[in-house]
Structure formats: structure tokens, C-alpha cells
Amino acid sequence: MTARLPLRLLRSAAFAAVATGLAVVAHLFAGGGLAYSPVAAGFAVAFAAVFPLTARERSTVQVVITLALVQVVLHEMLPAMVTAGHGHGVFGMVVAHGWATVLTGLWLARGEAALWRAVRGFAVRLFATLAEIVMPVTGRGWWPAAQMPRTRLPLRLVLGRAPPFTV
């Protein structure tokens, strides 16, 4: 299933917000300073980096790797734009960023899976409902019983339906 532009924009914005938020929190936690323009620039960079990847569902590994790469870029942007010479322990920084990136990436991947599950479920339910409206199930029905899509919505809609028309 391929995502259309509104869903792609929404997914890109959500990823960019989480990635930028994670970078900002990590940066502040490490004692760095902060200004609004680097945060906005970081959001724009994260959005632009992830937008081409939002056309289809991504695996957990892809989400975590993408987040890790974006974190590296954002980490380099924040010290360079805010406080040149910002110093911190390299090993501790790598471990902290690594753990935060993996945990946040897993969280994003679960959200990604849930979003696509909802989109697929909505599409099946919408198709089944529209099929019922256009061609109501009578007798054997539109689908054989074994292939009938499972939905939580009632398949038989009562929309002022009259008794069957006979000629």
C-alpha cells in the first residue's frame, strides 16, 4: 500500500518532531545551549531527510537506522549552530545517544506499524461497506462466505431499504 501526500506529510512531520525533540532534549541534558533557529533548521532537515521514505511502510530496523542517521546530523547541527566548542565525553555521548535512539526508534516503529494497521483496516472496512451499499448481500452474496472480509462494522447497512423489487 502506498501512502498519499497528506499521510506522507503527517508521517514526516511526526518523525521530524520526535527526532528533533530527542536531539534537543539530549543536547540540553548534556549541558548545551539552545536557540529557536537551530531547532527549526533541525526540524526542516529531519523532515526533508525522511519525506522520501514515507511512501510505504518501513520496518523497525529501517526506522531505527533512519532515526540514528538523523540524530547524528542533528547532533552535529546543534553544537555547530548554538555553542561552538561545546564539549562532552565522547563515549558517554555515544552511549546516551545510542540508547535514546534505539528506544525512540522502537517507539516510532510501533507507531508506524499501528498507523499502517489502522490504514489497512479502514480501507477494508470502507470497501466492504461500499460494496454492501452498491451490491447488497442477498442469497449467496458478493463474496463466498470463506472469503468475506472481517470487519467490526455491520456489513448490512439499513439505509431506507425496501423489500426486494420483483418484476
Task: Throw out a few tags for this protein.
single chain; mainly alpha; elongated
Describe the protein in words.
This is MFS transporter. It comes from Acrocarpospora phusangensis. The chain crosses the membrane at residues 12-29, 35-53, 60-78, 90-110, 122-143. Residues 1-16 form the signal peptide. With 167 residues, this protein is an all-alpha fold. The protein has one domain (5-147). It is built from 4 helices and no strands. Helix 1 (5-29) packs across helix 2, helix 1 packs across helix 3 (60-82) and helix 3 (60-82) packs across helix 4. The chain starts with a helix and ends in a 33-residue tail after the last helix. The model has no long low-confidence stretch (mean pLDDT 77).
> Between the first and last Cα atoms, what is the distance in angstroms?
43 Å
Unreliable runs: none
- For the record, the count of structural domains works out to 1
Q: Count the E strands.
A: 0
> What does the average pLDDT come to?
77
Q: How much strand?
A: under 5%
Structural class: mainly alpha
Largest sheet, strands/sense/barrel: none
Dominant shape: elongated
Helix content: 55-70%
SSE layout:
Elements: H1 5-29, H2 36-50, H3 60-82, H4 90-134
Put the structure in a nutshell:
With 167 residues, the protein is mostly helical.
